[in-house]
Amino acid sequence: MKYQYSKLKNGLKVILVPIKEVGSATTMLLVGAGSRYENKNNNGISHFLEHMAFKGTKKRPTALEIASLIDGIGAESNAFTGKELTGYYIKSSSNHVELSLDILSDIISSSLLDKAEIDRERGVILEEINLYEDTPVRKIADIFERLLYGDTPMGWDIAGEKEIIKKATREDFVSYMSKLYSASNMVLIIAGSIDVESVLKKAEKYFSAFTGFKTKGFLNTKEEQTGASTLLKNKKTEQAHFALGVRTIGLLDEKDRYPLSVLSSILGGGMSSRLFHEVRERRGLAYYVRTIPESYIDRGYLATFAGVDPKRIDDAIKVVIDEYEKIKDKSSVKEEELKKAKEYLRGHFILDLEDTKSVASFYGSSEMLEKKIENPEDVIEKLNKVTLEEVNRVANKYLDKNRLNLGLIGDFQDESHFQKLLE
């Protein structure tokens, strides 16, 4: 898979990824904006703004008009907000790329941000927040990140606080966009069955009028941890959920990034992983259990997530801690297990890239967050080079029992009880 990189005169970057074997194309615009760039007074504005994108423009005044155009070509459209990126995309048959470019450029540059639509969508956002609160399997990651990063933009929920959402005004959206929605802070990716030269001209046609300006950065916060820590969210649930993990590294740390991915795969990357076998298959403690590495630009973590019987949560936590300790032994991981973990990661990566939307996201996020672009083959090569020694090194470097972090959701009152399990 190869790509072509261009930059428009206004600073907007364009990545074109031709894939002849498919009949579709994903047109995606990524913006270097997200909850990490917010403050106490506008927490949730990034996500709220994303919701407003398809609600009407000067050219297409209503949400129905925009939706009808997209439905009329049998396309899929959506948007997403993270802590460091906001994305908007339309996935269509390849002969409708120009319309996708037209619509995306329109909703970003000419959104009406109508007060009545803002008020209507406000209710949608509040219900989305309620949904997350009532879905512990999704909420537990927010609790864990709140534990790691505290009362900072990195520790706040992406959806925002209800009281702030209730007060958001059109001026708040305009002010936020004026700080971050610069052409120089965007990347446009078109991946699929496309003619590169023709599509580049169309990209210039629809996006060259975007304004470029210097954008604001995010607030740097120092990470400090002197001992194990716990955060409990009390909630009456049938199943208790926990996340147990450690701080690791950001996206730019090439040395440890791939060994950590392999380590997490060995621990909880699939149905034959150590924790899936020990926690679910052997002891029947959980329905789901998985270990993931998460990396932001300058920080990250490795954590195990599980949903368990509240009466047996202590046992499940102890098993995870024991497995963290066992894998630190130099003779613990054998060559066969290493090979299986790398094949698991490689296989899932390749399967993901069969979707043009995933391809667009892969190339776009690499450019936006890492300031460089690699082909999938480059990633696979780095994964293939991970050794037993590297896996053991990162296991001993990061899986420090004295620096564990435990986030929980369940009908528990005594947080100190769980803190003692870590000591």
What does this structure look like?
The chain is built from 16 helices and eleven strands. With 423 residues, the protein is of the alpha+beta class. A six-stranded mixed sheet has the order 1-2-6-3-5-4, with helices on both faces. The chain has a five-stranded mixed sheet with strand order 7-11-8-10-9, with helices on both faces. The protein starts with a strand and ends with a helix. The protein is globular. It folds into two domains: 4-207, 2-Layer Sandwich (Cytochrome Bc1 Complex, Chain A, domain 1), CATH 3.30.830.10; 229-421, Metalloenzyme, LuxS/M16 peptidase-like (Cytochrome Bc1 Complex, Chain A, domain 1), CATH 3.30.830.10. Helix 12 packs antiparallel against helix 14 (376-384). The model has no long low-confidence stretch (mean pLDDT 97). Strand 9 (286-295) and strand 10 (300-308) form a beta hairpin.
